[in-house]
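Working notes for the structural subgroup meeting. M.R. asked for a predicted model of this chain before we commit to crystallization trials. I am recording the input and output together here so anyone reviewing the notebook later can reproduce the run.

Input as submitted:
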Amino acid sequence: MSLSISILKPFKPFAGIESARSAILLVASAVLLSACSGGSKRPEPAPLAANVPLIGVKQAWANRIGEVPAGASPFVAGNTIVVASADGTVAAIDASNGRDIWRASAGAAAVTGAGTDGKLAAVVTRDNEVVALEAGKQLWKAKLPAQAFTAPFVAGARVFVLLADRSVHAFDGASGKKLWANQRSNTEPLVLSKAGTILAVGDTLVVGQGGRLVGINPGNGSVRWEAPIASPRGTNDIERLVDLVGSTSRIGDVVCARAYQAAVGCVNASRGTLLWNKPANGAEGIHGDSSLVVGSEADGKLIAWRRADGQQAWQTERLAFRTLSAPLMVGRSVVVGDNNGNLHMLSREDGSPLNRLTTDGSAIIGNPVLAGDSLVAVTKSGGVFGFRPE
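Returned structure, recorded in C-alpha cell form:
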C-alpha cells in the first residue's frame, strides 16, 4: 500500500490559548494509491460498458461556480443549493431552475464548502476565518485557532465549525460572537486533510472525533456521549490514524458513518450506543435509507450493508479503480460519481447499472445530493449540474 503524505504550514494560535496549541499541526492526507505493494502501478480502471438507460433521467440545467475545494460537497436547504469555489465565491442556487438566488465573495480563498440553514451561509477561508453571509452580503467573520477542512454546520441560529484537529467551535449566527469551544484532550499528532463529520440529531450536535461519534450539548459544548466506530491500530502514527470522514446516513436517531480506511458503523444517537461496525477500506462518506447503508471503497468497489445488523447485502466491482465519490441513495437508485465526471445510477437491489449521466469531464466532488426534485452534482472544475426524471 502506498501513502501520500502532505504537511501543511501550521497556524500560529492566538495569545492566551494553551501552549499545547502552539505545537505544529501536521496534516496527513493519506490516500490509497495502490492495493499492491509500494512502487507498483495503480490498476487500470474497469472499462465502462455501453450505457443502456433503464430509467429515464436528463440534464435539466447547469451553472458554474469556479474550481471547487477538494471534498466540498454542495449543501442543501429545502430547494436551495449552496456551493463555494476555491476563490471564495459562495453561491445560493435555485434547484428548480439552476439560477443564482445570490452570489457573493467571502473575501479570501475558501478551503471548505459552504454550510447553510437556508438563510445564513458560512464558509472557512485560507486565512483561518469563518465567514458568514446572508442574502449575498457578508454578515461577519471570526478568526479560528487552527485549519479547517469541513464546511461549517449552521443550525439553531448558530454556526458550528469542526477544525482539522476535530475541536468544535460555536459562534452566534447573528453577531459572530464565540460561544464555546470543545477541545479534544487526546489530539493525535496527525490529522486528515479531509472533511469530517458533523450534523444534528434532535437537540444534540453529533461530530466525529478520531474514530468516535461524539454527542455534544450545542448550548455549552459539553460532551453527552461517545461511541467508538473504529480504534487506532498499527505501530506508527500513520498506521494508527483513524478519523470519521464525509457524509453520513441518518434515519431517525440512528447515524451511520465511515471511519477512514477502517470501518463503517451505526450508532444510536439518542443513547450514544454502537449498534454495529464492520471493517471497510474507504476514504469517502456514506449514504443510505431505512434498509441499506452504501459506501464506495478505495479500490472502487461499491458495498451495501444491511442497516439493521451490518451484514453485507451486495457489492459490485463494475466501477473498480474509478476513484468514486460518496454515494447518494434516491428512489430505486444508488448514484455515485467518478473522477471523469460520470454519474453512475445503480440498482439499490444488487448494484446493477440503470443509467450513466455525464457532466463536464472533471471529477465529481464530495457527493451528489437531492434538492427538491433535482439530482445535483458539482465537479472539480466548478460545474453545477441538475438532473431530473424524464
